[in-house]
Specification:
It is a single chain. By secondary structure, the chain is an alpha/beta fold. The strands form four sheets. Strands 16, 17, 18, 19, 20, 21, 22, 23, 26, 27 and 28 form an eleven-stranded mixed beta sheet that branches. A nine-stranded mixed beta sheet has the order 1-4-5-3-2-6-7-8-9, with helices on both faces. Strands 12-11-10-13-14-15 form a six-stranded parallel beta sheet, with helices on both faces. Helix 13 links the parallel strand 13 and strand 14. The protein starts with a helix and ends with a strand. The relative contact order is 0.08.
Length: 765
C-alpha cells in the first residue's frame, strides 16, 4: 500500500495518549528507523501491522524516521493508524543534533525507545534516553547483531563502543542465526528472542478458494503457479528462480514474481533470461496487497542469499503454501521442515526437483502446506509476538530478560551450549562400584575417507578405505574383541562397504549410526566448521538427517540400531531430545576434557569419563569416549582450564605451551596420535580415579595408509596395530579387565545389583 494513498497528516499526535480501559494510560513506545518504507519493505509493512496489535495490549507505538525524506512536507502522518514522524521534515535535516533536538522536545511522551537501526554511532541519543530514565531496546534484523555492529568500528575504538553500547538495555533478535552471532559479544541476559509473526485470523485456504483466487487474477486453473514475493534485486536472487523454471519442462509451470524493481539493470537481465521461457515467468511488479496471489499459488519459492526473518515465509504459511527455499543458516532450517512442510535446496537442479515433486503430488503439496500453517499457529501467531513485546516493554529495568516460551519449536540451544557441568544438558554422571571389574569397548568410527586437514568440503563419500578395516580385524579376533562399528551415510549405503559391514555384523559386531551431517541427506547446509556439528543445525533438519541415516542402518542391520555417535562429537541439546524420542539406548558422543567451542562445537572440558544417564535411569545411557588430562598439573585441571581457554590464554597459546612442557594436556584413549605408554598412563590414572568403563576409539580410514594424519605409510599402519595389540594385552593382564560391547556394558550396568541406580555414586558437578 503506497504511503500517498494510506497516510494523512496527523497534527495532534497527543491523540494517542488516550486512557486505557482501566483509566491508566498505555505504555508508550517510540520506534526509531533510519529508513522507513511502509509500502514495500518487510520491516515497514510488518510493524505497521504489529503496532496496532500491541495497542490491544495497552502498548501505544509511534515511529520516528531518521533519514527517509517523504514526498510530502508534513512532519507527522498516520499510516494505517500509526503516527509516523519524519525527522527531516520536523527539524529541517537528518542529523544527530537534529535527532537529539527532537528527543529533547518529545522524549517525555515515551516510556521505551525501540531502535530498529543503528543511526547514532556515538550513542548520544541512547545515553540521553537512559539519562532521562527511558528503557532502550534494539532490534537485530539483518547483519546488525551487536557483534556485527561492533565489527564496524575500528579495532582501537571497539572497547569504547562496547562500553557505550551498554546504554542499550536489551537486544531483540528475530532468528536463531542472529542469536548465535549476538552471543559472541553480548551476555545472554541482554538478549531476547522474538521472531516475526503473522495474522492467522482467516482459516487455511481451501481448494475451492484457490480456484476462485485464480479466476479473480485471470490465472489458468491447471497451471502450477510458483510464487515469489520480494524486491527484484540481486540479494533476492530472482535470476536463480528463472534458472529453476528453465529446468522445469512442463509448460504449465509458471513463476510469478511480485515486488518493486530496485535494480533496473538486474531486472533487465531477468527479463532477457525469462524471454526464452515465453510467458512462464511474470514480473508482476509491486502490489498493495498480494494476498490473492498467495491464495492462488501452488507453492512459494524463495532464493534470497541473506535474510533476517522473511515475512514472506509467514504470509505463505498463513495461506498454507508449501515452501521451497535455499538454505539460510539458522533460519530456513528452523522454519521449513524438510520433507514435511517444504523443501530446503541449494542447487537449481534440486530446487526444480522439489517443485516438480510438489507439482506431481498435489496431495503431498497440500499436506506440506497445512503442516507449515500448523507450525505458524504454534509458534508465529502475531498475537503471541505482540504479547512477547508487551511483556518485554513492561519488564523492570533490574529484571533479567528470560527467553520466551511462546515459541516452543525454536530451540535456541546449539552444540555450543554443551558446556559447563554435565547437568547443563540433563546428564547425570555416576561412578560404578570400585569392585567392578574394568570393562573395555572398542568403537570404530566407520566412515568415508576425506582430507581431515582440508575439512568436510573434501568428503565426496568415497569409501575405498573400508577394505583396510578387514586387515585389522584379525588382531581383534585374536583377543576376542568385537568392535562396535558406528556408520556414516556413505558407508551405510554403498555396496562395497555394505558387504563388509554385514560380514562383520555376522561375527557379532554391534552397529550404530555415526551422524556426519555434511554427508547425510538432505545435504543442504553449508560445509563449514559450524555446520559440521550436527547439534548446530535446526532441530527439524538434524532430525531428518538422523532419520535418514537410521533407516539405512536399519535396512543393513535388519533391526533398529540403538547406538549413536555424533560426528566430530557435535551433539547438542536437540540431538539428545531426538535420540530419546527415537528410543536410542546408548550415546557415544561425549569426549571429556576436550573443548571444540573454538569451531562452534561443544566444550566437554568439565565432563568426566564416567558413564551417565540422560534423564531417567534405564533410558539413554552415555558411554563417553575415554579421555582425560595428563601432565604434572593434571590435578589442577579444573582450576587451570578456564585460564587456558580464555581469550588471553588462546592468544598466548597456553594449551600448546602447557602440553610441550608436559604440564597439562588432554588425550583420548586411542592408538591414533598416542604412544602405548600414554595410553597406559591414562588408563591407570582414570582407573585410580574410579573409572571402570573404558572406550578405545579410532577411525576406519586409519587402517589404510594415506587417509589420515596418523597412518601415512604401511609402516604407520603396522605401528598402529602394534599399539592396539599391546594395549589390549595390557588391559586384560595388568588391569584385570574384560572386553565387552556397548550393549554388554549397558546390560551389566542395569543388571548388576551393586550398580543399580539407587546404589550408584553420583559424580559431583
Amino acid at each position: 500500500m503506497t504511503e500517498s494513498s494510506s497516510a494523512h497528516p496527523a497534527h495532534d499526535v497527543q491523540a494517542h495518549d488516550v486512557p486505557w480501559r482501566d483509566g491508566s494510560r498505555p505504555l508508550r513506545v517510540l520506534h526509531l528507523y533510519r529508513r522507513f518504507h511502509p509500502d514495500y519493505t518487510g520491516d515497514g509493512i510488518y510493524y505497521t501491522r504489529l503496532i496496532p496489535e500491541m495497542a490491544r495490549l495497552a502498548v501505544a507505538g509511534e515511529i520516528l524516521v531518521y533519514e527517509t525524506k517523504p514526498d510530502h512536507d508534513a512532519a507527522t502522518v498516520e499510516h494505517e493508524g500509526v503516527p509516523v514522524h519524519y525527522l527531516a521534515n520536523a527539524m529541517g535535516r537528518a542529523s544527530i543534533p537534529a535527532l537529539l533536538g527532537w528527543l529533547a522536545r518529545h522524549l517525555h511522551r515515551y516510556d521505551v525507545i525501540h531502535l530498529h537501526s543503528h543511526v547514532d554511532r556515538l550513542f548520544l541519543s541512547t545515553l540521553f534516553a537512559r539519562l532521562l530514565g527511558r528503557r532502550v531496546l534494539f532490534s537485530c534484523t539483518l547483519n546488525d547483531s551487536p557483534t556485527e555492529l561492533l565489527s564496524d568500528y575500528r579495532p582501537s575504538y571497539r572497547r569504547l563502543a562496547a562500553l557505550l553500547m551498554r546504554s542499550i538495555g536489551t537486544f531483540v533478535v528475530i532468528s536463531p542465526q542472529l542469536m548465535r552471532l549476538a552471543r559472541q559479544s553480548t551476555a545472554a541476559r541482554r538478549l531476547r528472542f522474538i521472531p516475526q509473526g503473522v495474522r492467522l485470523d482467516r482459516p487455511p485456504v481451501s481448494a475451492a478458494e484457490r480456484l476462485a483466487a485464480r479466476r479473480l487474477l485471470g490465472l489458468e486453473p491447471d497451471d502450477f503457479i510458483v510464487l515469489n514475493v520480494g524486491s527484484v534485486s540481486r540479494r533476492k536472487n530472482v535470476a536463480f528462480l528463472v534458472e529453476v523454471m528453465a529446468q522445469m519442462d512442463d509448460p504449465r509451470a509458471r513463476l510469478i514474481v511480485l515486488g518493486p524493481v530496485l535494480e533496473e539493470d538486474y531486472a533487465e537481465e531477468i527479463r532477457a533470461a525469462a524471454s526464452r521461457l515465453g510467458s512462464r515467468v511474470t514480473l508482476a511488479g509491486f502490489r498493495d496487497d498480494p494476498t490473492e496471489y498467495y491464495r492462488a499459488a501452488d507453492a512459494f519459492a524463495f532464493a534470497s542469499t541473506a535474510e533476517g526473518f522473511p515475512n514472506v515465509f509467514l504470509e505463505a504459511m498463513a495461506c498454507n503454501l508449501p515452501i521451497v527455499t535455499r538454505f539460510l543458516p539458522g533460519l530456513s532450517d528452523y522454519i521449513v521442515d524438510h520433507g514435511r512442510s517444504g523443501f530446503l535446496a541449494q542447487s537449481a537442479r534440486d530446487f526444480a526437483a522439489a517443485l516438480k515433486a510438489l507439482q506431481q503430488d498435489p496431495a503431498m503439496a497440500a499436506g506440506f502446506g497445512l503442516a507449515g500453517r500448523r507450525f505458524a499457529e504454534r509458534n508465529l501467531e502475531l498475537q503471541k509476538v505482540a504479547a512477547a513485546y508487551s511483556q518485554l516493554y513492561r519488564e523492570e529495568k533490574s529484571r533479567l530478560p528470560e527467553p520466551s516460551s511462546a515459541f516452543p519449536e525454536f530451540s535456541l540451544r546449539s552444540a555450543g551450549d554443551v558446556r559447563g557441568a554435565p547437568a547443563s544438558i540433563g546428564l547425570r554422571e555416576f561412578r560404578l562400584p570400585t569392585s567392578q571389574r574394568p570393562l573395555l569397548q572398542v568403537v570404530i568410527d566407520t566412515e568415508a575417507d576425506f582430507d581431515w586437514d582440508k575439512g568436510t568440503a573434501t568428503d565426496t563419500g568415497r569409501v575405498s578405505s573400508i577394505t583396510g578395516l578387514l586387515s585389522g580385524f584379525d588382531l581383534f579376533r585374536s583377543h576376542g574383541v568385537r568392535p562396535a562399528l558406528v556408520l556414516d551415510y556413505p558407508v551405510a549405503t554403498q555396496e562395497p562397504s555394505v558387504a563388509i559391514i554385514r560380514s562383520l555384523a555376522a561375527e557379532g559386531c554391534e552397529l550404530g549410526v555415526h551422524l556426519h551431517g555434511w554427508s547425510t541427506p538432505p545435504e543442504v547446509e553449508l560445509r563449514d566448521d559450524w555446520h559440521s556439528f550436527s547439534g548446530n543445525l535446526g532441530p527439524a533438519l538434524e532430525r531428518r538427517k538422523l532419520e535418514a541415516l537410521t533407516d539405512r542402518v536399519e535396512a543393513l542391520l535388519g533391526h533398529r540400531p540403538r547406538l549413536f555417535k555424533s560426528g566430530r562429537y557435535g551433539l547438542g541439546p536437540s540431538t539428545i531430545a531426538a535420540l530419546q524420542e527415537m528410543r536410542f539406548e546408548i550415546d557415544l558422543s561425549i569426549c571429556p576434557a576436550y573443548d571444540f567451542s573454538g569451531m562452534g562445537g561443544p566444550d566437554f572440558s568439565a565432563f568426566s569419563a564416567h558413564p551417565g544417564w540422560f534423564g531417567r535411569e534405564g533410558g539413554l545411557l552415555s558411554l563417553p569416549t575415554t579421555a582425560g588430562w595428563l601432565g604434572g598439573l593434571r590435578q589442577e585441571a579444573a582450576r587451570l582450564r578456564p585460564l587456558v581457554a580464555s581469550p588471553v590464554g588462546r592468544a598466548l597459546q597456553l594449551d600448546r605451551l602447557s602440553a610441550r612442557a608436559n604440564l597439562l594436556y588432554p588425550i583420548r584413549l586411542s592408538p591414533e596420535g598416542n604412544d602405548l605408554a600414554a595410553m597406559k598412563a591414562l588408563t591407570r590414572q582414570l582407573h585410580a580415579d574410579g573409572v571402570r568403563v573404558f572406550t578405545l576409539s579410532l577411525h576406519s580410514p586409519t587402517f589404510q595408509p594415506g587417509n589420515t594424519a596418523y597412518t601415512r605409510s604401511a609402516e604407520d599402519v603396522r605401528a598402529l596395530l602394534s599399539r592396539i595389540d599391546g594395549y589390549l594385552a595390557f588391559f586384560r593382564s595388568e588391569m584385570g579387565g574384560a572386553f565387552s560391547t556397548p550393549a554388554g556394558i549397558r546390560a551389566a550396568i542395569l543388571g548388576s545389583t551393586a550398580a543399580m541406580p539407587a546404589a550408584m555414586e553420583r559424580v559431583p558437578a
